Amino acid sequence: MCGIVGLFLKDKALEPQLGSLLAGMLEVMTDRGPDSAGFAIYGNGDKDRVKLTVRGTGLDRIAGQFGETVTVTVRETHAVLEVPCDLEDQVRGWLTTERPDLVVTGTGQRIELYKEVGLPSDVAARFGLAGMSGTHGIGHTRMATESAVTTDGAHPFSTGSDQCLVHNGSLSNHRSLRRMLEPKGISFATDNDSEVAAGYLSWKLREGATLAEALEASLDDLDGFFTFVVGTESGFAVVRDPISCKPAVMAETDQYVAFGSEYRALVGLPGIENARVFEPEPARVYAWERN
Question: Which residue is catalytic, options 2, 85, 164, 245?
């Protein structure tokens, strides 16, 4: 049992509140996942720069390695490196050779991805989620049922640029999918079935599918039970498996689209009393793109 939340803003006036709204939604899902938590925020970006979110220790020592060309923002156990696109390979090479202890949790023009072991409210506070702004974000609270409680096992999982996924459920064919995807250049850092789902979508997107098309294909190729909430640079999407045994509820207004594993995750959103509230149908993809 895990908790999933997601918020996609249509109204730019709400963008400064994205983090605080998402933090409240995440905290409400604590009893569905008290072991660990994580979130991805799509904030400001620059087409000439890429963000690398890394996790580890000794993060304050990174800043001096690249002069003023690379900015480093440290938040507890994570740091966001903003790198000129033409230096990305150099920075990644340095991380591989000089700091192999660091884990890259997310990369892209806009995504920042944070996750840690602990109560959702504590994880959100440690990284200052309430003070973050952006256009959309997703979050996850984990109750480990099939693997150890580790930061590596926490969600979201990101296997492509500006792409991430959170998952409630279990996939039965993730090992065969992993064997199919690895020769196609999709790499994995954990044994988690949710990371394989993220990798599958990254592969489909790389092959030219839209986000909605990739999720449609997942309904045929992924076995098990699942609810996915997915983020890309411009998109936000939800899909449930054909049986849909995992709880899910959505709300849509002129200002936002929101997802929660339970309705109580949505009650603090502005104007929720006037929202169109509905349960997403089995085997149907719901997707939105920002203009």
Answer: 2
